[in-house]
Amino acid sequence: MQILNSMSGKVSLSVLSAFVVFVLGRLWEDVLKPLLESTIYSGTKLAANYVGEFMFDGKTVHDYVEVKQWAKKLWGTMTVPDGEGDAKFKFHATINENVLRGTYEGVKKTPRANGSFLMTLTPGAEHFEGAFIQPY
Fold this sequence. Notes:
Radius of gyration: 22 Å
Mean pLDDT: 82
Number of strands: 7
Oligomer: single chain
Structural class: alpha+beta
Distance between the termini: 71 Å
């Protein structure tokens, strides 16, 4: 009987610990991290999702970009819809005084594609302008 009481106490403690860690994680992500970021970082803040447009092989291509940002560091994915399946890329970048520069690499459909990009954000505008380079 004493063994069962000891085991149930350990299980209860494990469940309680997992719950506390979960609640603290959500508190950090939803409240503390955004508050800390907005207090310390006063530079350019980007939205989480964008629809992009660029020229590739003489054609206008649209893509969907998901961005995560921590101060000047950015990372995320870019998905280019295609009739035969979406091409997906991951990128890492930095933004400094409205200039965004970074690198990308293919993840899905074009895993060997990689390159770099440089874009600028005009103050008051809602879009980036720039270019990407993919070595062949």
